[in-house]
Amino acid sequence: MEYNIEKKRIGISQIIKEELQEQPLEAEWNLPDYCSDIERVLKCRGEVRISTRRVVGKTAYVEGYTSITLIYADSDKRVCSYDQAIPFYREISLDSDNVARVEVDGVVDYLNCRATSPKRIEVKGAAGLKISIFSEIGADVVTNATGEGLEVHTKNQNLTSVIGVFDKYMTVSDEVEIGEGSTPIRSIISGKATVCDADINPITNKTIVKGNVKVKMLYCTKNGGANTLEATLPFNQIIDTDGVDELCLCNLKTQITSLDLRARTGVDGDVRAVGITVGLLLTVRAEENVDCDLVLNAYSTKYNAQLTPCDQRVYSFKDKISKRITLQEEIELSLPTAQIFDVWCDQNNAYIQKDEVFSLNGNSVVSILFEDKEGNPVYIEKDVAYNFRSDMAITPNALCQNTVSVQDVGYTLISDTTAQIRMTVEVTSAVYEPIDANVLSGIILDENSPKVVDKHRSPIVVYYPSAGETLFEIAARYNTSVSAVRMANDIEDDNTDFKVLLIPIQN
User: Fold this and answer.
1) What is the DSSP string of 198-220?
2) Which residues contact 188 (CB under 8 A, 6 or more apart)?
3) Has domain 452-504 been given CATH number 3.30.70.660?
4) How high is the pLDDT of residue 268?
């Protein structure tokens, strides 16, 4: 028995385990002597940083910390702050050692802070960790089969094959000065870093990633006021990505792993510059489009065949969405306002929907720190809802790799009780549709089970095809070849738009 089965290896990255874990945030700290006494707590900010994540054998390890920033007012009505970190460590037991990587996304769910004395604070809250365990496997799909009377039904299909996922840790740093004539810095209150304008360019076995890290910091001035300072730090990184070339599809995910802001004292003793160091994790997911003929069904006119369906779902890349949503909303302030110190967004939730087209609903919590007419610092929060609806048709089983991030928050003080908030939300998603077909991964002919044909039956059968029947289905029913049916009826394609067909029977 001689027959040939041709296969194509398709790389697949799938989530084999996903957990949502709550990380308690509980701590008590004494403020150092150089910090002013706490008169009133304004806001306690928190951001989750993932420092390391790795897989060893059947265990996944995750380490990180929640960066806590207490923003408060002292007895002189000045805005002050104190920073501290709450570390965490996680071990996740795995059912298999065939695990390629672990990914972690963290967000602070809630955070409460109270001053138990002018120098002591108590923090209670929780952070949510979304831990995804990935296995990178391959699926063998049958693309052709010949010999021993094999007949195949094929469909040309574009498949997406995962080449690999590659991580790169890096840091970017710079020193930024405040403008001439500005009041010197007394202390840095808080800061936030965001990756924007990221661009990815694959070349042979490498990927070039370019982008900017936008850093916005709030600081207290020497005369007791507050101000903001913004800086843009460009980065350019070459990442080793074996197997990648210029035609590959590459998606980029970025995470801020650390943010360090340090005041720089000049020769005159005043602070007019800030040193910035940002830690980044760049994750490149590299894929290629594979155009091939998939065997969806098969039979042999000589032997009974065992067909093995592919046990892994394969996908085809459909399109990539990249959209910036600009929002404007008027917000009523709680008190008559002298000036706004800063506006930012620490909490952003977005929910992807697959309702015939790709769409999402989102909600951001906008934080506003301002000074009232009496010179008191005041903090308030407002919810801002947004939505996005594309024109891309999508099925419920589509796979979407999404990133939704707030890129910028600005404001205009319209009146002493009203502010217009401007927010830019960036939505990116790579959309993949599953191959809706019975893809085969194997065909085996049983030489001990030859097909028995009635030698006394008529060599020609007159057949009246039903609507929608294919020549492959008809030929399989009568255990003959598609080419024989075509030849007997002078047909060049799979058209069955005939009232009657002549089916030659193999004896």
Assistant:
1) EEEEEETTEEEEEEEEEEEEEEE
2) 81, 217, 218, 219, 220, 261, 262, 263, 274
3) no
4) 83
Query: What are the distances in angstroms from CA 343 to CA 90, 137, 227, 234, 413?
Result: 34, 45, 11, 23, 11
Output DSSP code: residue 245.
-
Contact yes or no for 23/66 (Cβ under 8 A): yes
Across the range 140-151, mean pLDDT stands at 94
Contact 388, 428 (CB under 8 A): no
Q: Where are the domains of the chain?
A: 315-434, 452-504
Report the alpha-carbon distance of residue 490 to residue 485 in Å, rounded.
8
The β-bridge partners of 228 are 218
Q: pTM for this one?
A: 0.89
Scan for tokens 């949502």, then name that residue. 20
- The residue assigned the tokens 């009826």 is 489
Query: Which stretch of 35-44, 279-288, 360-369, 491-500 has the lowest confidence by average pLDDT?
Result: 491-500
User: Which tokens in the block code for residue 270?
Assistant: 């005043």
Residue range 92-112: mean pLDDT, rounded: 87
Among the listed residues 189, 85, 169, 91, the one whose alpha carbon sits nearest the alpha carbon of residue 127: 85
Give the end-to-end CA distance of the chain in Å, rounded to a whole number. 19
